[in-house]
Amino acid sequence: MEQRIQFFRVAAAGIAALLIGTSASAQEACKPYTVQAGDTLGTIAQAAFGTGDYQNIFNANREIIGDNPANLEAGTVLNMPCEDGRISETVTAEQIIEEQNKKALSAPKSNAYEPPVKFLAGSNYAPFSDESLTGGGFLLRLAETAMHRGGNNRDYMSAFVNDWSAHLETLLPTGAFDVGLGWFMPNCEKRDMLSDAMRYRCDQFDASLPVYEPVVGYYTMKDSSFAGAKSFDDYKGARICRMDGYFTFDLEEEGLTPPVIELVRPVLPEDCMEALVTGTADVAGIEVQSAADAVAKLGIGTDVVENPNLSKVLSMSFIAHKSNPFGKQYITLLNRGLTEMRNSGEWYAIISSTLKEHNENLMKMAN
């Protein structure tokens, strides 16, 4: 989980120029779509939903797309989500969740007493975790539901603490809480390339299977010399914008650390986009949901483009401190429940229903 950054998905019309590549043709929401030559996930999202935010398409097709969303092959058949994020035209997210709840209620109960698992989240991080959302956001909903899936029948307690640094430095290491919800984990096999802060995550915490996998895109001005970058090596010498308090391991893993590059560290995603416009940054590396909203807010869709060749899929996981004597057990329980939820469609239903609620809240605020 990253301090001070809120991720959200907003459908904003009129930003087709945010993306490079030919426009996708004839696809519809809720219908399968066959990728054509020249398509990108961004152009497909723009044609189907009127927004450059393609995270929901990625969520619905994770196993098909693989680890490189920028390498979308012609002929690939994608399951296009509906306007509200669900996949099926006939079955709603709420119906899927209700059906799985009924099955869980009929499962055999354990007579053994086991203390509740203590989950730790932070608010003001919608749609991931926020006290204003149903169930506290989709991270809490996924964690709590997993405790009653996959053969699990474990009680839990959940709390919000908004001091994110205290999660890693005090609350999880001391056992005040058992599991932290929603932290980005680096590729620990590349440990020697990581900063001290990112190595700390590898060394001190056990992580669940990926709970959610946001895509980070890399954005430039349309006429920038970095716009046509074919590899991350092409960003050497660039001023790369990454919000203050935000992870940097995606850059570190590619050898893009000072002095090879200069890091520009403002507060908000729109600050990074504005830095592109004002010329104080050359590249902005931003999660695609936030990027689409920032571009729409600033009205710079005709000027800013996403690199069609480069993107990163990040892993957001539940974590337990390695000193917790039951930490590995709790991670095993969560993995078991999450696996069943993915197989049943409940994982996607919970995420899509939370995104729908959050989007509706954002639209109300805008009006």
From TrEMBL:
Read off the Gene3D superfamilies from this record: LysM domain, Periplasmic binding protein-like II
Q: Which CDD domains match?
A: LysM
Q: Which domain of life is it from?
A: Bacteria
Where is the chain membrane-spanning? none
Q: Which residues form the LysM domain?
A: 31-80
Q: Which residues form a coiled coil?
A: none
Name the UniProt record assigns to this protein: Transporter substrate-binding domain-containing protein
Q: Which organism is it from?
A: Albidovulum sediminicola
